[in-house]
Specification:
- The longest helix is centred in the middle third of the chain and has 81 residues, at 119-199.
- It is elongated and about 115 Å long.
- Strands 1, 2, 3, 4, 5, 6, 7, 8, 9 and 10 form a 10-stranded antiparallel β-sheet that branches.
- The chain starts with a helix and ends in a 6-residue tail after the last helix.
- It has helices at residues 2-23, 37-102, 109-115, 119-199, 339-344, and strands at 227-230, 246-249, 255-257, 262-268, 275-280, 286-295, 302-303, 308-312, 323-328, 336-337.
- The relative contact order is 0.11.
- 52% of the residues lie in helices and 14% in strands.
- It is an alpha+beta fold.
Length: 350
């Protein structure tokens, strides 16, 4: 009887649990057709790193190609110089031959001696001519050998240049392929972010593989490379009041870094800022990172300088992919201070 009285209650609990599981989104709540949140974020991060590495290899190849081109140009100039010197030597040889012909070079040496007023002077002159001819022949031989050597070097440089050109074309194609994949993955990630913002619910932290770089400074910039699209205090139609932070124009999926050590006090996925993170730092200051496409930390987590805390995007009220960065004296809006001099105190230039 005791078992019979509890059976309806157990059945009710099981049915509720099944209903919750059925309603719960799979893979962290990803939008159907968009892949898992962690999978897309990791793919964007991986492709971001691959694109950077491919660009670095391409740029190194381009610099080597420029060096090889300069070397080839140097060899060509040296070859032209040798050719000019050889032409001068040939002209000298022609003048000697003409002089010999005018002086009776066509006659046998015995005839010259019979006709000469001073046979000894004639012999000395002949010896000088022969020495000049021998010296000229040696000079021509050296020039011809130099020309052959330089021609070989030039051919080698041309072959190396061609090889570098082909390699750079392959690297360029590889980089373009990675960037095409990265662009597609970026917008897939942004689609997931937009779904989170529309639902007003965060998907949870996506754990990204952190870069090998370990910062030796206590403070860093929030993104590695960027173009400043709006500065603190700017006015305009985009804001009801003055702009409260620095806007860094960066592609979707760009790793966003914690500017310093601190504790994550807020992870939000709704409102004008879209997906945002707020970190409390020593001294009572807070930093905000907004319009993200994904977060890589949870509320309550401690972070270190340069740690990837999320990926940039264009969620919320955003006119395009960028990171909105603020420094505040409270965790909420309305308490922002100019981040440029604030970070400059710690040796970081924005």
């Amino acid at each position: 009887m005791r078992f019979t009285r509890r059976h309806p209650l157990l059945t009710t609990v099981l049915l509720c649990a099944l209903a919750v599981l059925a309603a719960r989104p799979a893979d962290g709540g990803h939008t159907p057709g968009h892949g898992s949140a962690s999978g897309v974020s990791a793919e964007v991060a991986r492709l971001y790193e691959e694109a950077a590495a491919a660009t670095e290899r391409y740029e190194a190849g381009r610099r080597e190609a420029e060096r090889q081109r300069a070397e080839g140009q140097r060899l060509e100039e040296r070859l032209d110089r040798e050719r000019r010197e050889m032409a001068v030597l040939h002209e000298d040889l022609g003048r000697i031959a003409s002089s010999q012909y005018r002086d009776g070079g066509g006659l046998p040496l015995t005839a010259h001696m019979l006709l000469a007023d001073d046979p000894e002077e004639l012999m000395r002159g002949q010896r000088v001519v022969r020495q000049a001819e021998v010296s000229l022949d040696k000079a021509i031989g050296r020039s011809e050998r130099a020309e052959a050597r330089l021609a070989r070097d030039e051919a080698k440089a041309a072959a190396a240049w061609k090889e570098l050109e082909e390699r750079n074309m392959e690297l360029a194609a590889l980089r373009q392929g990675i960037e095409r994949k990265l662009e597609a993955a970026r917008w897939k990630l942004q689609g997931q972010a937009d779904a989170s913002v529309a639902a007003g619910a965060c998907r949870g932290a996506v754990r990204l593989d952190q870069p090998r770089t370990r910062f030796t400074t206590s403070w860093v910039a929030p993104v590695e490379t960027y173009e400043l699209s709006a500065s603190y205090g700017s006015g305009g139609a985009r804001w009801a009041n003055r702009h409260t932070g620095q806007d860094f124009a960066v592609p979707i999926g760009t790793p966003v870094r914690a500017v310093g050590a601190g504790k994550v006090v807020k992870v939000s996925c709704g409102g004008a800022f879209g997906i945002e993170i707020v970190i409390r730092h020593a001294g009572g200051y807070y930093t905000q990172y907004a319009h993200l496409a994904a977060v890589a930390v949870d509320q309550g987590e401690r972070v270190v300088p340069g740690q990837w805390i999320g990926q940039s995007g264009t969620s919320g009220n955003s006119t395009g992919p960028h990171l909105h960065f603020e420094v505040r004296v409270t965790p909420e809006t309305g308490s922002a201070v100019d981040p440029v001099p604030w970070l400059a105190r710690y040796g970081v230039s924005l």
